[in-house]
TrEMBL record:
HAMAP family: RF_methyltr_PrmC. Residues 105-197 form the Methyltransferase small domain. Substrate binds at residues 194-197. Methylates the class 1 translation termination release factors RF1/PrfA and RF2/PrfB on the glutamine residue of the universally conserved GGQ motif. It comes from the Bacteria. The keyword Plastid does not apply. This is Release factor glutamine methyltransferase. S-adenosyl-L-methionine binds at residues 149, 194. It catalyses: L-glutaminyl-[peptide chain release factor] + S-adenosyl-L-methionine = N(5)-methyl-L-glutaminyl-[peptide chain release factor] + S-adenosyl-L-homocysteine + H(+). Its EC number is 2.1.1.297. Keywords: Methyltransferase, S-adenosyl-L-methionine, Transferase. It comes from Lacrimispora saccharolytica (strain ATCC 35040 / DSM 2544 / NRCC 2533 / WM1) (Clostridium saccharolyticum). It holds the Pfam family PrmC_N. The gene is prmC.
């Protein structure tokens, strides 16, 4: 077998370039490391060595080429590998959950900072993979965290992630269409959410990885992208203690609109917080 890791990476890169994948070289290398169970250091040391014809190598070769085939179909990288790092934790992901983005870490970091040394009762709506709720419970030590989602498939993913990072019983998972399952609960100190916020007409123009492979339930914010924020703004107050806070992830151009919805609903201390790139990413407010 006259193959090396370097040649295989170049083979994968060319296939992904042909398929229109933007970061073809980066993705082919990532998949190569995954398939051959190696890391960047060993890749750099061994990349020009001829691969031996061993069963384990042949199996890794088959896995790698299969992964490249899937990526060429514009299946998201992290759906292929089945995992995504978020807040330093490794989360299982699949086609039933939104892949966690680094932008969302801004929301988690804010809550961790604002509630350091406290033990708030937290509700995470539209939890998906559970990355927000689980990160808060794990990194903040919060022991009263409830995570809800309308999707049973998403909740199964969140349950596995919670088991991996927290153990059984550390957070409560609930199937709910926003507040539907919490009609009689008015005791949360913090409500967080990364709801669907992309306007329907914008979705068609998104990259195929997002448009065709991530769950529409987690993307579609209806006509103007604000549908779910209207519900969150109107209904959050009745499920919170006085002085409780909301933290909502937003699109980069939605800060003013979501702030206005919260103001109209009677919230105060409203602020819009940018992400690491300087784009508006989270709107926070308090019940007063």
């Amino acid at each position: 077998m006259n193959l090396t890791l370097q040649l295989l990476m170049e083979e994968g890169t060319q296939a992904l370039l042909k398929a229109g994948v933007e970061e073809a070289s980066l993705d082919s290398r990532y998949l190569l490391l995954e398939a051959f169970h190696t890391d960047m250091t060993h890749f750099l040391l061994d990349r020009n060595k001829r691969l031996p014809e061993e069963d384990s190598i042949l199996e890794s070769l088959s896995v790698y080429r299969s992964m490249i085939g899937k990526r060429s179909l514009r299946i998201p990288l992290h759906q292929i590998t089945g995992s995504r790092e978020f807040m330093g934790l490794d989360f299982e992901v699949n086609e039933h959950v939104l892949i966690p983005r680094q932008d969302t870490e801004t929301l988690v970091e804010l809550v961790l900072k604002d509630y350091k040394g406290k033990m708030p009762k937290i509700l995470d709506l539209c939890t998906g993979s559970g990355c927000i709720a689980i990160s808060l419970a794990k990194l903040g030590g919060f022991d009263r965290v409830t995570a809800a989602d309308i999707s049973e498939e998403a909740l199964l993913v969140a349950e596995r992630n919670a088991g991996k990072h927290l153990g059984e019983g550390r957070i409560t998972l609930v199937k709910s269409d926003l507040f539907e399952a919490f009609k009689n609960q008015r005791t949360f100190d913090v409500i967080v959410s990364n709801p669907p916020y992309i306007p329907t007409k914008i979705i068609e123009g998104l990259q195929p990885e997002v448009r065709d492979h991530e769950p529409m339930l987690a993307l579609d914010g209806k006509e103007d992208g604000l549908y779910f924020y209207r519900i969150l703004a109107l209904e959050s107050r009745s499920h919170m203690v006085l002085g409780g806070a909301v933290y909502f992830e937003i699109g980069y151009d939605q800060g003013e609109a979501v702030s206005g919805l919260l103001k109209d609903a009677g919230f105060g201390q409203i602020r819009v917080v940018p992400d690491a790139a300087g784009l508006d990413r989270v709107v926070c407010a308090r019940k007063q």
